[in-house]
Amino acid sequence: MPSSIGPVKTQYLTLPEPLRLKSGETLPEVTVAYETYGRLDPAGGNAVLVCHALSGDAHAAGYHEGAVKPGWWEAMIGPGKGIDTDRYFVICSNVLGGCRGTIGPSSINPATGRPYGTDFPLVSIADMVEVQRRLLEALGIRQLHAVIGGSMGGMQALQWAVAYPERVRNVVAIATAYRHGPQQIAFHEAGRRAIIGDPDWQGGHYYDGPGPVRGLAVARMIGHITYLSEQGMREKFGREIRGRPTEKFGPAFAVETYLAHQGESFVRRFDANSYLYITKAIDTFDLTEETGSLEAALAAFKGRMLLVAFSSDWLYPPAGMKEIARAVRRNGGEVTYCELDSSYGHDAFLLKDDRLAAVVAGFLGQKNTEGADYPAS
Amino acid sequence: MPSSIGPVKTQYLTLPEPLRLKSGETLPEVTVAYETYGRLDPAGGNAVLVCHALSGDAHAAGYHEGAVKPGWWEAMIGPGKGIDTDRYFVICSNVLGGCRGTIGPSSINPATGRPYGTDFPLVSIADMVEVQRRLLEALGIRQLHAVIGGSMGGMQALQWAVAYPERVRNVVAIATAYRHGPQQIAFHEAGRRAIIGDPDWQGGHYYDGPGPVRGLAVARMIGHITYLSEQGMREKFGREIRGRPTEKFGPAFAVETYLAHQGESFVRRFDANSYLYITKAIDTFDLTEETGSLEAALAAFKGRMLLVAFSSDWLYPPAGMKEIARAVRRNGGEVTYCELDSSYGHDAFLLKDDRLAAVVAGFLGQKNTEGADYPAS
User: Fold this and answer.
1) Fewer Cβ atoms within 10 Å of its own Cβ: the N or the C terminal residue of chain B?
2) Cβ-based neighbour number of residue A126 at 10 Å
3) How many CB pairs under 8 A join A and B?
């Protein structure tokens, strides 16, 4: 029976070197928050990097001391689970630009002694991956058995295949896209405007005030609409009235009270500037940017790839995932495309789903088609 | 060749009686802004009521003095057009709760001498239709040849068939729904939160201040995303960079500068409280509310109905329109369902489209199946 990895702790590592970003700017000192589960085998061949999505963090599984809720991917990570911590050494780190232990706009700027705010440089998905690579190097891991992630985590997984093709044997990208189209950008942009338009944003230097909590809540509400499917919402909420608003325009429909709750709880745990930086990193991510095509971008990747899409995910629809699969196939690469039927929309990848666990476990445990392990570099 | 109706003027009428609303509250004095095009024939049988959508107004066609832009449905209304002003007497009025001449939250509350703000009572689609009926009565029109509208205008057209089935011979509902599902409510709610969360909203009593212009702009941006299709956005914007932001998070992608422009221009012409009241009227609209089914709701309607959907409209998808058509058919009613292929999404109904004009013109000009005009009441 799958169980929980149990008590875990977030660890912190400061990278030995300054980090030069894609933008050309340099961060002199980069601290990364990360967690690990399971044990690295003596040959160092069983490391699996898990990449989190927009609002995730390093706490992917198990329980922090005194906590009631487990990590964000408890459904997938643990002994006997989709990512089996009895077999694999799992690493998950908070992304660059985040607000959960890794350096980001809410961190102290050594030049001023105050939080960076919008003086923090713009970051990219490629920069996030570079930080992960350096973290792994510091942990003594030169090659990954697999990198795996959903949504923005899937973008990082794909970026690994492009940036460090020789360092990763298996790539698992779930419910993601190789770049944003204008509709996806538009939803993010509406959220960013809500934050920036909040007077408490204060140009991004709000850390001695309340911060743009109303704007961030609206941004989160917009996000949540795109994470659920139309059908899933109908099944979950219908036109049910759940709120008893004391004001004329207070939340009344069940879907309204749900969104209000999502907005309110998000602002307690997330930094509005991180929301701006990370959504911008997602919007500007384009796997084909330097090479002009998916095939060219992925040409150097000789590992295996698993792509999992959910039928009702309209934020990152199956069609875009299939494009990636076709590109790998045209390159002669080994790729599995799997579409899971679900009414849960984009959020499906975060929910307990035995099919997803089975597909991932099967993929991670397989040898490659030649029957041999991918040669270690 | 179709041409413009030319110069037009908005007119105003104060209803002779107070208006008791669905909520139970009463508005003592209701002024309605309206425009008319064409001539009412002596028998009064050629009147066509045009109902506008969320952000529309009474100015549906022709040009106001000195104006460069025509009315919002110039593409459809005029001599020789889809709604032919050489044949029909066309009336369009601003909805109750609006901000373009008809009484709404920005109107003066006679009890205080100041704008109502959120003291204005909640209004419904049924209330909007009741105001239209009274306006028509004041104009000497007891029966309509047709009522026609898209989006929220289509909801009003459907409501006419339910509330006053004997007063309308033909109903044309375009790109609309008989009620909102939770996803549609959710998009509206995110917009309402953006407005209400703006400190300049001031609890709805902002008329001596700047008003919640940033919140309203965000609400409009969210709306616009739902008015376009994903495919249409890709064709129109792609990932093109058009802005040259001076700030880190300024609009850069073409879709971002487009949304920024839409938001900015909207706040100059629309009242934020009207946005709250009208979106709430839409969200609470449910044609089946009193009877429990579409068939029962539409049972008394003996006229003809035309339903037009657009293939890429994901705000009001064809499936919902087909449900209405099936209900009319099950009632033994005469209904035409027409799905037009388009990549323009929900907004398609506002654009020049010869197919839409031809379908509407054909439907309005036809006799009923018995070959006789619908009997005047």
Assistant:
1) N
2) 21
3) 145
pLDDT at B377 over 50: no
Torsion angle, alpha carbons of A8, A45, A321, A297, to 10: 120
Neighbours of B296 (CB within 10 A): 14
Mean pLDDT for B132-147 is: 97
Q: Supply the pLDDT for residue B373.
A: 43
pLDDT tens for B73-98 read: 999 999 999 999 999 999 999 999 99
d(CA B54, CA B270): 10
Element (H, E) at A132: helix A125-138
Per-residue pLDDT of B202-248, as tens digits, reads 999 999 999 999 999 999 999 999 999 999 999 999 999 999 999 99
- Residue B332 burial (CB count, 10 A): 8
How many Å lie between the alpha carbon of B69 and the closest alpha carbon of chain A? 27
Our answer to whether residue B293 is catalytic in this structure is no
* Chain A residues within an 8 Å CB radius of B190: 218, 221-222, 225, 259
Which entry of B93, B312, B346, B353 is annotated as an active-site residue?
B346
Nearest to A234 among B181, B194, B230 (CB): B181
Ordered domains of chain B (ranges, CATH): 11-179+286-365 (3.40.50.1820), 183-281 (1.10.1740.110)
CB contact under 8 A, A182 and B233: yes
* Digit-coded pLDDT (tens) for A94-132: 999 999 999 999 999 999 999 999 999 999 999 999 999
Examine the pLDDT at B371 and tell me if it is beyond 90: no
- Within 8 A of A283 by CB-CB distance, chain B residues are 253
DSSP letter assigned to residue B336: E
- What tokens appear for A203 in the block? 């140009």
CA distance B276 to chain A (A): 8
Considering only CA atoms, which of A141, A3, A130 is closest in space to residue A74?
A3
A365 touches A357 (CB < 8 A): no
> Strand, helix or coil at A272?
helix
Mutation test of the interface with chain A: which of B118, B119, B189, choosing the one with the most A Cβ atoms within 10 A?
A: B189
Report yes or no: B60 and B71 within 8 Å, Cβ to Cβ.
Answer: yes
Q: Which residues 6+ apart lie within 8 Å of A309 measured at CB? A: A174, A175, A316, A317, A318, A321, A322, A337, A338, A339, A340
Coil/strand/helix, residue B339: strand
Closest by CA position to B85, among listed B54, B53, B60: B60
Suggest the residue from B249, B259, B278, B279 to mutate for an interface test with chain A (most A CBs closer than 10 A). Answer: B249
Specify whether the CB–CB gap between B58 and B93 falls below 8 A.
yes
Looking at residues A78-88, what average pLDDT do you find?
Answer: 97
- Residue contact A181–B259, C-beta within 8 A: no
Length of chain A (residues): 377
pLDDT at position A373 over 70: no
- Band (pLDDT 50/70/90 cuts) for residue B366 is confident
* DSSP designation for A373: P
Of A225, A236, A263, the CB nearest to B187: A225
Chain B residue at shortest CA distance from A285: B239
ipTM of the complex: 0.95
Give the DSSP per-residue string, A79-124: TTSSEETTT-EEEEEPPTT-SSSS--TTSEETTTTEE-GGGSPP--
Measured between CA atoms, how close is B246 to chain A, in angstroms? 13
User: pLDDT digits over A149-184, tens only?
Assistant: 999 999 999 999 999 999 999 999 999 999 999 999
Q: Which of B186, B280, B286 sits opposite A233 (nearest CB)?
A: B186
Cβ contact A228–B183 (<8 Å): yes
pLDDT at A2: 86
pLDDT tens, A246-275? 999 999 999 999 999 999 999 999 999 999
Q: Which of B182, B238, B276 sits opposite A255 (nearest CB)?
A: B182
Separation between Cα atoms, residue B266 and residue B223, nearest integer Å: 11
